[in-house]
Structures are given as C-alpha cells and as structure tokens.
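Please decode residue identities from the backbone states below.
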C-alpha cells in the first residue's frame, strides 16, 4: 500500500484476482473535497525495466519503505544493470521515458515502488538512471 501523504485517501478497487494494478483507482480527499485526483498507474509503463527495479531495491523492500528502498547511486545502478541482464536496457529506459512523457496527468502511482511521483520528478529519475548507465561513472551524486 503506498505511503499516505498529509491528505487522506480512499482506495477504491473493482479489480478481480489476476487483474493488472492499473485497475485500481485512488481518490484523494482533504485538499479540496470536491476534487478527485486519479494518478496514472505506472505498472504497465515500467514493465520494460522491472528486472532493473528489482535489483535496485537494496536498502529495504518497497512494501515497507517505498522509494527509500531503492539505491540510485551510480555504482548501484551499474551493478543492478549487470544483475538484471538486459542487453537492450538503454532502449528499454528510453521506452519507459517516452511512455511517461506521453501519458496524461502529472501524478503517477507505482504499486511496485510503493510511491507517488510527480511527472517531472519521475522523468528526472529516469534521466538520472539513463545518464549513469551511459557514462559508466561511479562517482556521481545520487539522484
């Protein structure tokens, strides 16, 4: 379950067993009672790099710590890329970036990463991962 922000939320689901997490709608209340924000689900958009995300989850587990469970240091990204064994990883990351950039809305939800993302922050994270892999540098600051 994603971590709660200062606003309260209600989980409304009409999913059946085996459905994609994309069938879940989260309604936020408290900011403006008449305003409902439906974050775009990242599950399908992140699918090409899920093996990389698995190996980046080094600090804890996402179910517990959300985004803080992931190590985004350049050396952690390089190590995770090797462990994921995806020869076309750069193309997959570009595909994910394109999917996020082209999606509607500015709020994204990743059940896998247990986190809500602002579009620009998510694009910066994707760009950071791509730059770390392209440069091979191990001495850059983390995202």
């Amino acid at each position: 379950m994603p971590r709660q922000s200062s606003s309260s939320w209600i989980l409304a689901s009409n999913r059946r067993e085996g459905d994609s997490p994309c069938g879940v709608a989260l309604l936020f209340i408290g900011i403006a009672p008449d305003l409902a924000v439906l974050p775009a689900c990242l599950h399908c958009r992140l699918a090409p790099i899920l093996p990389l995300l698995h190996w980046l989850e080094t600090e804890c587990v996402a179910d517990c710590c959300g985004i803080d469970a992931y190590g985004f240091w350049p050396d952690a990204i390089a190590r995770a890329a090797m462990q994921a064994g995806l020869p076309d990883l750069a193309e997959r990351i570009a595909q994910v970036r394109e999917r996020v950039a082209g999606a509607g809305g500015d709020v994204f939800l990743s059940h896998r990463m247990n986190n809500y993302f602002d579009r620009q922050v998510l694009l910066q994270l994707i760009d950071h991962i791509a730059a770390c892999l392209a440069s091979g540098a191990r001495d850059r600051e983390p995202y």
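Observation: The CA atoms of residues 45 and 96 lie 6 Å apart.
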